[in-house]
Amino acid sequence: MSIQFGRIIRTCAIFAPLLFSSAAGAQDAIKIGVSEPLTGAFAASGNYVAQGAKIAEDEINAAGGVLGRKIQLIIEDNKSNPTEAVSTVEKLTQKDKVPILMGAWSSTLTLAVMPKLEEYGVPMVVETSSSGKITTAGNPFIFRISPTSEMEAKAFQPLVAKLGIKKADFLFTNNDFGIGSGAEYAKMLKANGVEVGVSETMDPKATDFSAQLAKIKASGGDTLIVTTAVEQLTLILKQAKDQQLKVRVISCGGSNSPDQLIEQAGEAANGTFHTVFFPPWFPEVTKNPDVAKRYMDEWKKRGHNVGGLTEGFRGYDGIFTIVAAIKAAGKAEPEALRAALWGVQVKGIYGDIAFIKQGPAGKESGQNIPSVHLVTITDGKVSKLGL
Amino acid sequence: MRPGALDRDQRRFSLDQLLQHGLNAIILGGTYALLGIGLTLIFGIMKVVNFTHGEVYAFGAYVMFALVMPLGVNFFVALVLAMALGILLGAAIELLLLSRLRDADIDTTMLVMIGAWIAMQNTEQLAWTGVAHSIKNPFPPEPLVWGALSVSWNRLFVFAVASLLIAGTYYLVNWTKFGKALRATFQDRDTAALMGVRIDRVNTATFALGSGLAAAAGALLGPVFVVVPTMGDLAASKAFAIVILGGLGSVVGATVGGFILAFAEELGSGYISSGYRDAMGFVLIILILLVRPTGLFALKERIS
After folding, report:
1. Which of A7, A254, B90, B188 is the most buried (most CB within 10 A)?
2. Alpha helix (H) ranges present in A66-106?
3. Structure-derived torsion over alpha carbons of residues A42, A45, A46, A49, reported in degrees to the nearest 10
4. Between B230, B265, B268, which is nearest A41 by CB?
5. Beta pairing, strands A365-367 & A373-378
């Protein structure tokens, strides 16, 4: 008996330091999981969001962290691939045991990881994704700070008459983002008496749109509404010029980086319109210009690509939203954070971030109502249009 | 307005649309054919499932970008240099990876090539980031307009150079001593060696030539599109489809296959549905392979 007791004590003595050190290690920093496309088709945008998130991390830690502890981002690459996105969430919640996540850039990637959030009971702040399905599917772990396509289309409404749109054709990328956006804009335009011509789609990886553009030209609308990210948009503008498609091009979705378009599409970018969620050319028009300026100064100080400012702020706002929830909850546990997110008020670059309820009763998701801005490119310069 | 006038206008409009689709398909077909012939040499004749083809294509585009944009090298000189470097890269891949695997089974070679593909794509992103780059070209920015049809000068140039390279490859494979050695080597390696063909050199040269053509395609199309690390994925999948459609190892087959794919995509998305643009080409390939399982132009002795 006494021998056994001695053995137990010895075992405890051996493992005690291990137990203590790991407990102290966890006390060091609050982990926040981030899943972004750092490689693959969306690598450019995913890296910008990660850079913005790191700026927020450093700023928060320099100011003493939260709850007396530092925060630590664990950024995983979801490789622009829905299957990989699910793996990153598995890894972050099961191995790193993060109490909260930010991700996953693009509607398709976000939709892919949503069932896992429910399975593991971990909330996620969605910094980029516009498909309506995300907040109406009845997933109570989703808190989206980016606007839905419906909000974007609604914000655009006053401009229909101002621009004199009579007949619009559509070209959108064939995924949750493009299809959702195309449907919402078509609905809004029809409600405003605009005739809707052809709706053409393209594979998210496609580079040649000559067939679609020839069809759009034959449809004879005065406006072309395009939903895709900046890489395809650049090619569409160039190829539309080659095919002498002389219509007003409006791009939506907010991942259109007008600076990059000016640099890469050159003359073809002139006369085009773009909805953006943060206009770095005139930060004074945003709700919290001081926050926008702080973010922009740090971005430039770090030598990041200026064309990425319109993406990076999403990560910056996402991390600040999460930290506000941690502060309000008083502890870094998934369920407490989920409850706390409903009450957060953050002065962000998206505007004043707060969540309203969307989706079926009892299983609502959180949705922020951010600002949407419309800009136009003339002579290689970005200027704003009232929204 | 009289109803007849509207009808005539509409008919006129749809004829213009058809002609524009046709013109687009011819221009696109030229680039598909160029992608196809490079791969048919390697995949069709050497029987190496070359997953690096798309990455060599991207490499050509990045070399073009590096030479033209930061270094300010002349566009046409850069094009030649990109192709030359593509040939060197192909030779390096062959000597470093494939020459050791000459007697390995197809699975081993395939795994090595998949590894090389992933490593190359990630190196591109590490070196150039995932942000798209564009390459300035010296052609007039306004397209060439002919009635209701229009096409950019840059694409016309691509079509012309692609045609030259395709014709050159055809000549090289079918009418030169090197071409004879090449065909002999891959028909019967041992007999060719006994006849004095230096089969190691032929292997390296064939892979280098195929890679040079891929790099040329990348360097030509980089300025038409934008340059991104993942650009090779789509190019490689189309190239494989074209080679299988045309018949393994046939330069003529790859050329015809390239044009068939371009017409299927262009007309399919123009008149059926653009959402299935990429599916159109593959559906057509399945149909053709059902009728001719060896592809359109495969020669019997090359299949054995």
Report:
1. B90
2. 82-94
3. -170
4. B230
5. unpaired
Copy the structure tokens of residue A101: 């996540």
Q: Are B274 and A41 an interchain contact pair (Cβ–Cβ within 8 Å)?
A: no
Domain CATH number, residue B101: 1.10.3470
Average pLDDT, integer, range A280-294: 95
Among B14, B122, B231, beta carbon nearest to A39: B122
Q: Are strands B149-151 and B144-146 parallel, antiparallel or unpaired?
A: antiparallel
Higher pLDDT, A1 or A75: A75
CA distances from A241 to A208, A349, B150, B164 (A): 13, 34, 9, 27
Domains in chain A, CATH or no CATH each: 29-147+287-367 (3.40.50.2300), 151-276 (3.40.50.2300)
Both structure tokens of A133? 């399905």
Region A205-222 average pLDDT:
91
What confidence tier does A377 reach under pLDDT thresholds 50, 70, 90?
Answer: very high
How does pLDDT run across B89-102, given as a tens digit for each residue? 999 999 999 999 98
| pLDDT at residue B279 in the model | 82
The 10s digit of each residue's pLDDT in A121-171 is 999 999 999 999 999 999 999 999 999 999 999 989 988 999 999 999 999
CB atoms within 10 A of CB A168: 25
Residue B143 lies in a domain: no
Reduced to 3 states, what is the DSSP secondary structure of residue A196? strand
Q: What count of other Cβ atoms lies within 10 Å of the Cβ of residue A64? A: 10
Of residues A216, A213, A273, A283, the one with CA closest to residue A243: A213
CB contacts < 8 A, A to B, total 117
Contacts of A94 (CB under 8 A, 6+ apart): A120
Number of domains observed in the structure of chain B: 1
- Which residues in chain A are contacts of B269 at CB distance < 8 A? 200, 211-212, 215
Check CB contact under 8 Å for B234 and A211.
no
Kindly determine whether residue B225 and residue A235, on different chains, have CB atoms separated by under 8 Å: yes
CA A207 to chain centre: 23
**Type of residue at A329:** A
Question: Is residue B236 assigned to a domain?
Answer: yes
What is the ipTM metric for this complex? 0.83
CB of B29 within 8 Å of any CB in chain A? no
> CA distances (Å), A335 to each of A100, A121, A332, B44, B148, in order?
9, 7, 9, 58, 63
Domain span including residue B172 = 34-136+153-303
